[in-house]
Model the fold of this input.
Amino acid sequence: MIGILASIIDGILIGAVYGLAAMGLTLIWGVMNVINLAHGAIVVIGMFVLYTVANMLGLHPYGAVPLMIVFGFVVGIALYWVGVHRMIGRPELMSLLSTFALNMVLIGLGTAWWTTSPYNVQVSVPSVSWQGYTFTGTHITAAVLAVVIAGLLYLLLYHTRIGKAVRAVATNREAAELCAIPTTQVLAMAFGLGVALAGVSGTLIATMFPFTVLSGEAYQLKSFVVTVLGGLGNPAGALMGGIALGLVEGLATPFMPVSWIPIVEFGLFVFCLIAFPRGIFSFTKA
Amino acid sequence: MWRRPFPWFIIAAALLYALYPYFTDDVGLRESLLLAAVYIVMASNLNLVIGYAGYVNFGNIVFFGLGGYICLYLVTALHWNVIPAAFVGGVAVSALALLFGLGILRLRGAFFALATIGVNQAIQQLVVNFEPWGGATGIYLSLDSYGSLGGPMQALWTTYLLIVVVTAASLLASYAVRNSKFGLGLLAIGENEDAASVLGVPTPLYKAMVYSASAFLPAIAGGLYFFKSGIIEPSSAFNLQTSIEAIVMVMLGGSGTILGPALGAFLYEELRGFLLTAQSFSQFQLVIAGALLLLIVQFVPGGLLGWVHQHWPKTRRWLE
Amino acid sequence: MSTLLEVSRVSKRFGGLQAVDRLSLTVSEGEILGLIGPNGAGKSTVFNLINGVYPPDSGKVLFAGQDITGGPPYRVARHGIARAHQIVQPLGGLSVLDNCTVGACFGREALPLPAARKAAREVVEMIGLGDRSDTLAGSLTTAGKKRLELARALAARPRLLLLDEVLAGLNPTETEGMIATVRKIRDGGIAILMIEHIMRAVMSLSDRIVVLNLGAKLAEGSPKQVADNPEVVAAYLGDSKLLDAAEKPA
Done:
């Protein structure tokens, strides 16, 4: 019984990171009605940033975290201008294909540079023992950092002028325009923010698990499941949804082979979409 | 439909396509034309769902792969002739698609798109664990299997001709649908699903029907293709990359038109062939496809045919 | 004149807002019923409840005796209710003719394609878009799109037409033309339920008027009765000059 409890707690820790990743996705959707199919590729970028920082530059692994936030923001803005800007207001099909095309380009470049071999970054953080079970230090640190970053996002959105601008554009772009808010720049920044969140979650994941260029796909599916659980456009719900998903994974892992977990998640995803179109956690919407 | 010139044009082109390599006995040409034909089948059927109804089926390869598996299983385990086996594969996969479709077509936009990927991955996973279908190793065809078609050499030609028939059928089907009430309803759904519903278009039914219909011919093509190849295994049968390339083909040629996907498939196939032989580019296949898709979606969303229609509006009438 | 549409004590709540509150109304064959009220009174919601965009929380909608409560919209369309929206919804990538053909194919008569095309052509001519029948709907002017919205609804040969502010955004000449068209439609045997803010038009076109306020029926009656009603004046009309509009010969 304790074994399952330990698995669940571990799942919740990892779930906080899932939540962070999903926050990036749901933020972009909420602000500009674009579903970012390059999300997985960005998580991968975060992973390889950790690798570059820790293994190639020899710096402290957790130094990659603030670095990725800044880098992700910049990359996000670039991606916005390259692939998203012209898609705003167009039929959803177009933005889907556009972000998907970005995904193809990024993964293609990544494969060419790093191949599909697995990579691993050793991060040594002391573990916590309890009742004979060990909780990996990296998992705990990742969860704590995820919550901290989520908290920073909250502060940004609700206690700064820029955050207010983002929320204004999300609510009603035309009205925001009339209030002299430079909406296009706000959209670009919001996209940058979403990418930063997704990217840094990748960095945190890479501190915990080995990864390849193709790992992003699984996390993209997880992010979508979480976004659906939390309700589109609802960052707080995304965090809760992430923890919930982590919990489900923690429950499931002792009982089924790893390769089946994506199928379970996919089933959960379709089920939630049909049964809870507004998300299970939509009551947390601010 | 047969009173208009266009269908006859398709049939004439198909005859030429099929018989030219046959009478010149050009095996190399046959092989590359066969591959292009398979892509045309995939792209033009995919176009029914993307171009007409506006739903992006990212996992379209699953029809092709599953059709292949069913056909090869019937041929190897039950010793069927490939022609009825491929046909049954087509029917079975469309029936499954109808079932799945009714469920996942309730989802809009990206969620539907992701669900189709999930369907492909889930089925691939199931097949990998399914021993009667060879699990992860797949199904091999022995030379005897080709006996029913008069031996391996003859079989290769026969399957080629059959695939061309399926290709022609795909284009004719695209044409027939486009000029039917069903097609008009689909186009309305693609433009504005809610408005279409208010106008009386039975949206859930039509979406499920087109999704199912778009599975039939690719499943048959899959059966024929893998029969010709002599082997089927999960990673190539359910290869997501091929699925994605089909989407690029549709967008390249012009989604929503009839010749567009065929044109796009042909062009993309040529481009891919060129890239694969040019060593320095082979790794960048996905990058180039992605960049191409990005450019098309942003600057020429109507694809090649769309661009032509825009600049020469009269062509809209006859160049469909 | 028999009752065609019967809306019976329908209610709809959105979160904290009671958008429609136990509303009942009827529309008889060959009648024009005007639905007026201040903005936010719930008029468009009533339309959504009638043609099945979402179901009411309670109450029923009956059409020609059949229960059509809750839709789905395509079923309601098949029964013979067509709608012209306030915010026009053209099928932008299709031509004007094709737009109307969709209406004719999937509306009450469910015509096969060739017959539907013919019916569509007639409607397009009637509504004055004949010279633009091959234009893509997305490239029409706003006035053109409004006409198309109406033409498409008519192509379905409905028995009841829901008009949602068809006069909004039209200049005086266009408004006159549209008023005449609406009258012609009714004379052709189609009942009309219209939401409108242009008082002159509502008062002159409607046989009866229902006034909505905060989701509930405030008043009902002939145009003159409504214009005289002090509660209506207080809540909405606010001006006795509107009495003149009601008394002016149509």
Summary: Residues 49 and 55 of chain C are 6 Å apart (CA to CA).
